Amino acid sequence: MAGYKTLDDLDVAGKRVLVRVDLNVPMKDGEVTDATRIERSLPTIQELSRKGAKVLLLSHFGRPKGKPDEDMSLKPAAKALEKFLGGQVEFAEDCIGKPASKTVKNMLDGDVAVFENTRFHPGEEANDQEFAKALAENGDFYVNDAFSSAHRAHASTEAIARLLPSAAGRAMERELDYLKAALSAPVRPMMAVVGGAKVSTKIELLLNLVGKANVLVVGGGMANTFLFARGVNVGKSLCEPDLADTAREIMAQAEKSNCEIVLPTDVVVAKEFKEGADREVVGADAVKGDDMILDLGPDTVDRIADKIENAKTLVWNGPLGAFEIKPFDTATVEAARFAAKQVEESDLVAVAGGGDTVAALAAAGVEDDFTYVSTAGGAFLEWLEGKTLPGVAALEQSPDQ
Length: 401
Prior knowledge:
The chain has helices spanning 36-50, 75-85, 97-105, 122-125, 129-136, 170-184, 203-210, 220-229, 244-256, 298-310, 330-345, 355-363, 378-384, 390-396; strands spanning 16-20, 27-28, 31-32, 54-58, 89-92, 112-115, 141-144, 166-168, 190-194, 215-218, 260-262, 266-270, 279-283, 292-296, 313-317, 349-353, 372-374.
């Protein structure tokens, strides 16, 4: 793969390999409650171990503000990892200094160790060169397998990659492959679905996508701002009137780029936002003053399905309605299930990611049926916005072996 090395390019037998993984996983009472990110790191860890490397795992957890905090220790994550690997995982009480070097010294080739939270040191988030050097002292190679942290220029994601011969791990490689297929070199027609509450959080994303996609579906609360910008009454719906000019600019850019914007033609409205609230389907231009738009209507969902059916590439970020409360999850669930069906039955490449998106696809029961679902929140969004990710750029500029 152009630009950066992969595990195939490293001769790791008998070497110390520092691997940046993402062990920043949900926990409750000292137990990991969702191990998805740990599971995604297993192929890299197991391959390096099998090839006879000493595998040294670096990660952050939470926001300890540059000092040790027992509540944010990586010990529970190390224990969870042991269960997946079916063998002992060493634990170093610090990621630098004597605790780290002593742990490495006592390891055999093929052993795996977790180093304590990198954010217990202020140098991590400051991307401090001296802290990066202290991390690098324990490694012969550096592997970044944490795409979800690649948008941050931190010592364990950016500075260290410039100090050691570096490569992308298997999860990172897979993520970049799929994102490239979806955004940099998509098979066309390419379609984007962008939902969520606010235009304000996704301006750069929308502006980037209208220059790349053939079709852009705007759903969720942000669709209300677009309708408002077109002079449509949205009643009491979530809306950002001060961003009407921005919405109009995005629509103008789309027209220049020959990108078709799909906005709701019918919507589901209710007087209050609660489960089982009285609701009705109305035309998008027939919303009353005391109505709240809480989901897309069936005609709009049918139009979205038609577009998905004709697409070869689909990028999805954000729910289409207030999916947390039934039945306002209907549009999201139906459109997601239709996309999953197209992945299975035709050659649609469907890539999704970002915060609420993973939860929305899980609610639809299709999180395993898309071509690829990214667990990265901020990094996935910044990639969609067309930004350079420091953690990826650093791998491309790493020193040779």
